[in-house]
Amino acid sequence: xxxxxxxxxxxxxxxxxxxxxxxxxxxxxxxxxxxxxxxxxxxxxxxxxxxxxxxxxxxxxxxxxxxxxxxxxxxxxxxxxxxxxxxxxxxxxxxxxxx
Length: 99
Known about the structure:
This protein has helices at residues 15-28, 32-54, 59-76, 79-87, 89-97. The two termini are 21 Å apart. Helix 1 (15-28) runs antiparallel to helix 2 (32-54). The chain has a domain at 31-97. The protein is mainly α.
């Protein structure tokens, strides 16, 4: 899906991850539990990614971790939210690539 191409970055409110979470919350009308669960998934992915990089891991390992996170996130969403998410995937990619 290419959704989390540039997930990590610096900035305010958790960087691009925080900005993305805010956008997802608005677009998908996430409830508090969903938003918190997604925040935990983002944090876990960030830690996994750092661990893979520091161990000299390959890009394929990062992509696999990202795919696993995305699947877990989609499973948290209702069918209607999943449809909205899929329709807006390109928007989220662009959102993350902004400086």
